[in-house]
Amino acid sequence: MKKLLFVILSVFMLFSCNDGDIITEELDFEDTFSACGELVFYKIKEDPAESISLQITSVTKSLDSLIATDENGELYLTEEEYTINGTSNFFNYRRYDTTPTDFFCDDVPSSDITITHDEESTTGTATVYISLTEDDDDGIDAELEDINGNGDLTDDDTDGDGLPNYLDEDDDGDNVLTRLEIDTDDEDGDDDPTTNYLDTDGDGIPNYLDTDDDGDGVLTINEDANEDLDPSNDFTNPEIADYLNFSIDDDSITTTAYRDHDIQQTFEVTLEIINLELPSITYDYLDFGTLEDDNLEDERTVEIPF
Questions:
Q1: Contact 44, 52 (CB under 8 A)
Q2: pTM of this prediction?
Q3: Domain layout of the chain by residue ranges
Q4: Separate counts of helices (H) and strands (E) for the chain
């Protein structure tokens, strides 16, 4: 009986040792990734010095072309799928003798960096998703510009110019930018300028939604003495702009145009991979993360018809 038990334990230990020789990896990287060149996406880390990367060569596109927009601000592309096959599209997990800084973006990788381990997948599907968030950058958070409170930001258009308030940097259409008509001192400490708004004429309508801010009977848009589509820089009294000065009620000017509006655009690029098979590990689903790039911000200008 003791001999049988010894044999069973020996066999168990033998198989345990063999299992221990199998290399298994966990792709433990940050949630963001970088990109360069013609569709090279990668992540690196220092301890240990490792990287995962996806190189797309089946198409000749740059990252900029993926996030391009037309004249209406519409994306050319919202998602695109690529097959990882090891011949034109490559996914690699690598280890190095030192951190591979600038290894992927240089035409000639540094000779000081040595790849000590390299695994490649010849299967998998990578999908690049691109989303666009737009905002007027007027000092009021988009969710606070839901004037009717129905949860739909697209149907709140105070001045009726075709731009919803969350994209309109002049919500009341008086040619004074909203960011100049709100109280940014945040005296109540709630980080909400709509609860401690400026209301020069005390009519209960905040300046940024009021077409006659000083209540003098002359529309703010027409209190533009130099006729440059900006009433905020017209001063008879150097202490206060005319459009906020009840004693200045010159009605001789009729403005016939709105100033152009700038809409801020922020793009987000994410990457997901399914059915990835490396020699040491298999992923049914791998969230590659979100692209970290300061150049994913842009601006479009809208001309408002009067």
A1: no
A2: 0.77
A3: 29-132+267-298, 177-248
A4: 2, 10
